[in-house]
Design a protein that fits this description.
Length: 821
């Protein structure tokens, strides 16, 4: 019904940009999901200033608590060059000068992060930071990240800090408020524990190292360096808690300790002269099948085992540990992981404990809490479907804190949110507390794909761990995540151009009991499994034909597949594994694809593809974007591409509503333009670009971030991040005048399509005019990976297929591995 028309723009690295890129003021805010969406390994209250507390996350930076229970993000300035600031492995709030905040940041200690870590120093409670570089890597998203805190400020002489490194780098000390650091060479252990020495990626085969540093504040007076310091180390079966009596000059193993398990937390109860320690037999955050809780009486040098449960009731390790500084002897501890999470509380220093819930007679539970997720309704209670218990209280519970100024106020972090409440002492008086999701302001989603459809809801998202959402509001949380089928991670989604309420999504749950393709005819409100998919096929990218009859799927496990009318998916042999794909939004017969430098076209609903052009010589396309009602066309269906000057690298691209009726669609790109890496908009198909992000909004790693543009509202664009949720931006100031003259372009008032390809690596970007539904991701060079080799992950350019007998399984956003099928 429409002529297929395509405009192709190619970006050449070699062409200099005409002038400096100008900027336009944009207002940015999170698309509210609420409730976190990821792991919160640390929550730390300042012991001195009432109400001051911070939370750290593993991939989404750090946050400061507000008086109304909401949280303020502190590291949104982290841009592509500083993406590893979002991995916060430890935090310390200064008990003396409470304006001082220190964060140990860095994402991975293996090759996933090429950069060393740094201590970020703030003197204004996290509003601004100065980095102090470290000569080694820091692993905010590594195993053992919930142990801690590894970073501590001397409570008597606050210019002194200690930091416990990973990877065998040992214990470090600063005497100038974290500006410079030196290794404490007298410290006797750097930690030998390694979660999995056989992991070829280095992710599970690195040493966890020093786990925590705890000053005994009572051992000195203000102004003098604290002599007694306890340090926990990730050693299993050898001494793992050490103490100094002279401010860190000399060290000895704490006598009488039990080194059967790893010490996760060492928390001082000053009034009791006691160190409480939680232990687990794994480093966490996912493991732990045994553990204990111990207390050490500093005056008498005696240890007491105060583990809350024993025998067959003990099938978990312990993580979070809190003391109530207002009520010495009141302590709490969490089961780090267990099929049914658990929290214990004692008011007699661990002699007796009471649980947050218990079995009445299996499977009936007594829950000593009421539960509210009004701030993030999608969280529960069904989200944590732990049949038969149907418990809500969480898992991966490494952080647990009681407000040092308010015995009723407590918070704990889980794999998905922060829970807590304001009536904690009701646990003792009534054995009933109010649990609430208290993570308002924390937006920690790892966003995989975004679609702003032309009609219906404003936005539909595919996210890691929490499935995905239909966003009918940008400021209120969604009521539920994708249901039936429910997958942990939705890898991608797309809509049908002529039936824009019709959606397809693909999941990434290897080994799931459901096929990993689902279809919706109501903009994602409900879904049906596409039984044309085989059970063992997962992940990748998906494209829906314009009339919603055909699904083209560039899977991460089985190459490119196609299915019409939900028939069994069959291989598309004419496309390489890992190809980028997109559907035309008007012509049901047409799909686009790209792999390597080759651009492909199908005019028979995806059955076969023909190479129609080569996009330069050394280009790896990152994205094809198709606009449903673009007004531009080329007459050659993508057989040639035109260079856009000045762009040396681009990761994601999207097409949105035009500035003027009948004008060019706005083009948005995450790109390096003229040496500036950022987020840009062009209203004249690539001649003039304005930068739309600013110094306060860096959005982390550009290569991880999907972009989609609003087709209804000019200027509005959505950016998905890997750890800081979804952002919406809209113009807040006038667009600067163009500096270059737009090329003459053939112009049509008929509906047509625009397809866009951007290069992730090199000299050429192809911007043709088409869809906004695939996330940015470099394209595999094809081929087949050998056993246990890497087969995917952010930035991966190698093979995504595995040798026979092996399946490519995502281990994390940065690494997929060929494991035995
Ligand atoms: C050390 O802890 C383990 C595990 O709790 C326990 O089985 C063992 O008896 C303890 N050893 C001593 C000497 O107390
Ligand atoms: C572009 O492709 C469409 C679909 O096959 C075809 O109908 C049209 O003639 C092509 N246009 C040109 C100029 O090749
Ligand atoms: C999935 O199952 C099919 C049919 O049993 C098989 O041919 C294919 O090799 C399997 N793929 C993977 C990646 O295991």
């Amino acid at each position: 019904m429409h002529n297929f028309k395509l405009l192709a723009l190619v970006v050449s690295a070699t062409s200099p940009l005409a002038g400096a890129v100008s900027t336009q003021s944009y207002s940015w805010s999170n698309v509210k999901v609420g409730g976190g969406g990821g792991f919160v390994p640390g929550i730390v209250f300042n012991p001195t200033e009432k109400g001051l507390a911070y939370a750290r996350t593993d991939i989404g930076g750090a946050y400061r608590l507000n008086a109304d229970d909401s949280w303020t993000p502190l590291l949104d300035f982290a841009d592509n060059a500083r993406w590893n600031y979002w991995g916060v492995d430890a935090l310390a709030t200064d008990p003396v000068n409470t304006n001082n905040l220190y964060l140990a940041t860095g994402m991975y200690t293996n090759s996933f992060d090429p950069n060393n870590g740094q201590i970020l120093i703030s003197n204004d409670q996290g509003n601004t930071f100065t980095p102090s570089p470290l000569p080694f890597k820091v692993g905010g998203n590594m195993p053992g990240r919930g142990m801690g805190e590894r970073l501590a400020v001397d409570p008597n002489l606050n210019s002194v800090l200690f930091f416990g490194a990973r990877s065998g780098h040992g214990l470090w000390k600063s005497t100038n408020s974290a500006k410079t650091w030196t290794q404490v060479t007298s410290f006797p252990s750097t930690g030998t524990y390694i979660p999995d020495p056989t992991d070829p990626t280095g992710y599970n085969s690195d040493k966890i190292g020093i786990a925590w540093v705890t000053f005994d504040s009572t051992s000195a007076s203000s102004g003098k360096a604290t002599p007694r310091i306890f340090v926990g180390v990730a050693n299993l079966g050898s001494n793992n808690i050490f103490v100094s009596q002279d401010g860190g000059s000399t060290w000895a193993a704490v006598p009488g300790q039990n080194d059967t398990f790893l010490p996760h937390k060492g928390v001082l109860s000053p009034a009791e002269n006691t160190l409480y320690v939680s232990y687990s037999n794994g480093a966490g955050p996912y493991d732990g099948t045994l553990g204990s809780v111990q207390k050490y009486n500093i005056a008498t040098s005696t240890w007491t085992d105060i583990t809350p449960v024993s025998g067959s009731d003990l099938y978990f390790g312990f993580g979070g540990l809190a003391v109530d500084l207002q009520k010495p002897g009141t302590i709490m501890v969490t089961a780090l992981n267990s099929p049914d999470g658990q929290i214990f509380r004692s008011t007699d220093s661990g002699s007796t404990w009471s649980p947050l819930w218990e079995w009445i007679s299996y499977p009936t539970m007594a829950k000593f809490y009421t539960y509210s997720t009004s701030l993030a309704p999608w969280i529960g209670p069904s989200t944590v479907d732990l049949t038969p218990g149907d418990l809500q209280i969480g898992w991966m519970m490494e952080s647990l804190s009681i407000d040092p100024h308010d015995s009723n106020h407590w918070l704990y972090g889980t794999g998905e949110t922060i829970y807590g409440g304001h009536d904690l002492t009701s646990w003792d008086s009534k054995h009933l507390v109010t649990l609430e999701s208290l993570a308002d302001g924390i937006e920690e989603m790892s966003v995989q794909s975004l679609v702003a459809p032309p009609t219906g809801p404003l936005l539909i998202s595919a996210v890691g761990d929490d499935g995905g959402f239909v966003h009918t509001s940008l400021t209120s949380p969604p009521s539920q995540e994708f249901q039936t089928p429910k997958w942990s991670t939705t890898a991608d989604l797309d809509y049908a151009g002529n039936f824009p309420a019709d959606f397809v999504r693909v999941g990434n749950d290897a080994g799931s009991a459901t096929q990993q393709v689902a279809l919706s005819t109501n903009s994602g409100s409900s879904w049906n499994i596409d039984f044309g998919a085989a059970l063992n096929v997962t992940g990748g990218k998906v494209a829906y034909s314009a009339n919603a009859d055909t699904v083209l799927w560039s899977s991460s496990t089985n190459g490119v597949l196609v299915s019409q009318f939900t028939s069994a998916f069959t291989a598309v042999s004419s496309l390489p594994s890992g190809s980028l794909i997109a559907s035309d939004k008007r012509n049901n017969n047409v799909f686009y694809a790209a792999s390597g430098a080759n651009f492909y076209l199908s005019t028979n609903i995806g059955k076969t593809f023909t190479k129609v052009s080569t996009i330069g010589s050394s280009t790896t396309p990152a994205k094809i974007a198709v606009h449903p009602t673009g007004l531009f066309h080329s007459t050659n269906n993508g057989t040639t591409f035109t260079a856009i000057s000045g762009i040396t690298q681009a990761w994601a691209i999207a097409l949105g509503a035009s500035a003027t009726t009948g004008g060019y669609p706005a083009v948005y790109a995450a790109a390096n333009i003229g040496g500036t890496i950022g987020y840009f908009r062009s209203d004249d198909q690539g001649t003039n670009w304005v930068q739309i992000n600013d110094a306060a909004h860096g959005f982390g790693s550009a290569s991880s971030n999907p972009i989609t543009a609003d087709l209804r509202v000019y200027g509005r664009v959505f950016i998905g991040t890997n750890g800081r949720g979804i952002w919406v931006g809209a113009p807040a100031g006038a667009a600067p005048p163009p500096t270059s003259t737009a090329p003459t372009t053939s112009h049509s008032s008929t509906s047509s399509t625009i397809s866009t390809i951007s290069s992730s690596t090199s000299s050429i970007h192809t911007t043709s005019t088409t869809s906004s539904s695939s996330t940015s991701s470099p394209t595999s060079t094809g081929g087949v990976q050998s056993a246990f080799g890497q087969c995917g992950g952010s930035g991966w350019l190698g093979p995504t297929a595995c040798v026979s007998g092996y399946t490519c399984v995502a281990q994390n956003p940065f690494y997929s591995q060929c494991v035995p099928s």
